[in-house]
Design goal:
mainly alpha; two-stranded antiparallel ribbon
Length: about 325
């Protein structure tokens, strides 16, 4: 199982997205999304192994949408201006897909699959649109002044994913969406703190300036990529913030479809495992990227299996 899906070639003159015009039938489009999902080894895959069969394809369609947009913003071989052109084309194709209650004629197979999912579960256009805006933000913004500013970014880059999961599992309550935002934002933060060195190599940082100021960490010191006492204090604060959000999100587990509760539990456990790895290496994310071991992944799989079995019983009783 690889960690990268080979999308094919994009171009700017004229703008062309890899995948346009391919896999145009409903069956082909959804099979393409499944191929994308199965090509990536992520926390998502642990969850998806235990997703009910009638929902699994739709989760894979959503995953493919998120993965493609993310790779357009991070991996496409162009500068920021070029990537923005590709993302705008992706957004325009989304607008076409959503036309007349998801009955438009998009060119990309992922969006044809998204139409099927969105019509079935009455999903609005907004969460998909927000995700694309986040990919665009990453081309324009590489620093965050305050926690509130970073939180707003997460409300575009992470929280809509939770909303999409809720829709697929039959939940359309604003209160539940607000609770799920805690988990999604926490998972986004855990990934940011895991990838501090990678982000800095791209001249990007998600550490709020106000946290740096609190401990006297300057950008010059940040750029030295050394886990000084100031750095340790800064990252410890941000890890604590992420953990508190994970804790706040756990109340959702008792209020949703039991199968979704398993998904949420595994997303949380995976994110918490990253935070634990960061603590274990004493917040030095410069020298070594914190990872979750294969053994830990196996443990998570066993836990998911047990939780899924309990969810099956609960669903039958309901």
């Amino acid at each position: 199982m690889s960690e990268k899906f080979e999308w094919g070639d994009h171009s700017l003159e004229p703008v062309h997205l890899a995948g346009w015009g391919e896999h145009q039938t409903a069956v082909e489009a959804q099979a393409y999304c499944s191929k994308i999902a199965n090509a990536h080894y992520e926390n998502f895959i642990i969850v998806n192994k235990f997703t009910p069969k009638d929902i699994k394809q739709h989760i894979e369609n959503i995953y493919a949408f998120c993965r493609y947009g993310d790779d357009l913003g991070d991996e496409a071989p162009f500068d920021a201006e070029g990537r923005l052109k590709l993302l705008q084309a992706w957004e325009d194709d989304l607008e076409e897909a959503a036309r007349e209650e998801w009955n438009g004629n998009p060119r990309h197979p992922i969006l044809k699959a998204i139409q099927i999912t969105s019509r079935k579960y009455n999903i609005p256009h907004l969460p998909y649109w927000k995700l694309i805006q986040a990919f665009k933000m990453d081309q324009k913004k590489n620093r965050y002044s305050t926690w509130e500013e970073l939180k707003k970014y997460c409300s575009y880059s992470a929280d809509p994913v939770g909303h999409l999961f809720l829709y697929v599992y039959g939940h359309d309550e604003e209160e539940l969406r607000l609770i799920s935002d805690n988990t999604c934002t926490a998972l986004q933060l855990a990934n940011h703190w895991q990838d501090v060195a990678r982000d800095w190599a791209e001249n990007r940082s998600y550490i709020p300036q106000e946290t740096m100021d609190k401990y006297g960490l300057t950008w010059e010191q940040y750029g030295e990529c050394v886990a000084t006492d100031s750095w340790v204090n800064v990252l410890r604060d941000e890890v604590i913030r992420a953990q508190e959000l994970f804790d706040a999100g756990k109340i959702l587990w008792q209020r949703v479809n039991p199968h979704l509760a398993v998904d949420l539990m595994m997303f949380t456990k995976g994110g918490e495992a990253i935070l634990k790895s960061i603590r274990k290496q004493r917040y030095d994310t410069w020298t070594k990227r914190p990872t979750v071991s294969k053994f830990k992944h196996i443990i998570l799989l066993f836990r998911a299996k047990r939780a899924w079995a309990r969810a099956e019983k609960s669903a039958r009783r309901a």
